Amino acid sequence: MRVSVDIFLRALFALTVPCIGSANPVSDTASTALFSSTTEVSTSSDGTSSTHAPFTHPFHTTNALHHGQSFCDTGKMQSPIDLVETSCEKKEYQPVKFLDDILFTNEVQYENNCETVKITLVDKTLKPRVEGGPLNSCYFVDNIHFHWGMKNTEGCEHTINGKQFCMEAHMVMYKNTSKDVVEATIKKELAVVSFLFSLNPTMDPDLKTMVHGVTEVLQPHTMFNISGNSLNILKDFIGSGFYSYTGSLTTHNCDEGVLWTVLKKPIPISKTQLIIFHDVIGEDGDELQNWRHTKPLNDRQVFVSSF
Length: 307
Ligand SMILES: *[C@@H]1O[C@H](CO)[C@@H](O)[C@H](O)[C@H]1NC(C)=O
Ligand SMILES: *[C@@H]1O[C@H](CO)[C@@H](O)[C@H](O)[C@H]1NC(C)=O
Prior knowledge:
Layout: H1 2-16, H2 28-36, E1 82-83, E2 89-91, E3 97-98, H3 102-105, E4 107-112, E5 117-121, E6 129-132, E7 135-148, E8 159-160, E9 163-164, E10 167-175, H4 181-187, E11 190-199, H5 208-215, E12 222-227, H6 232-237, E13 242-248, E14 256-263, E15 267-269, H7 271-278, E16 303-305
Parallel strand pairs: 1-8, 2-16, 11-14, 11-15
Antiparallel strand pairs: 3-6, 4-5, 4-12, 5-7, 6-7, 7-10, 8-9, 10-11, 13-14, 13-16
The structure holds 2-acetamido-2-deoxy-beta-D-glucopyranose (2 copies).
One 2-acetamido-2-deoxy-beta-D-glucopyranose binds next to strand 7.
């Protein structure tokens, strides 16, 4: 019992913790500063610190959890990648869609776990279902979390034709033949739908409640419950055209065999909304940033929907 809980927690970490090592979880120029500031482990942040240090990172908490093989430095099928439209193979897909309203009609929890802001259903027995696109079966949503940077010009993990947007949300799912994300990681039955965000002069009203949830968890290890309708924006965008390929988790241990669907149409986010994410504080009292650089495509084919 204890062992399986431990494995479960580790795997949850694996989904949200940026890479350790030379695989550069953040910009190359930042990595030195990142690693040199890892010495202090503070487990009792008082939550009132608002240090505006240039770089932060959550790595010290993950060293102890870093068991098993890591693919971050050695993998040949890593994520994110640059999605190059002209090299994609066009394919007739159905749109990706939610099969039920579970995610939107129930209470969800926003959590600053010092690696990201992670959104999960409060009732862990509920299993929102997704299908369509490249998914050859029905998948259950496990969590939604975000990747962002320090500046308005960075933050996304996937790039499109070399262009980087300012934020990316990952909806992590597991195939209905796995019992949870842990089993799905081992069986290579994980899938992620990725929502890109692009800066826009005007505020999207549908994004307001989601950003509100984030403002409630700016301090390390805080949580906030709010209605799932704060996620309605995902419903508006999930049916749009997309790229698909097989890659990896973008955080430790960068396990491969993850089926990616990256939606083409970015969600517009205003500067004032993006700043809220930039203000999320990590373990050491510094502002958190958590995006990983693109990795080589190697032998992989990227598909693009015909719509
Ligand atoms: C998984 O989903 C597929 C497609 O919707 C369905 O046919 C199958 O019965 C489901 N399997 C399980 C174990 O629920
Ligand atoms: C969220 O709701 C659950 C279930 O009611 C509760 O156990 C938890 O303490 C709540 N969390 C917060 C931060 O209010």
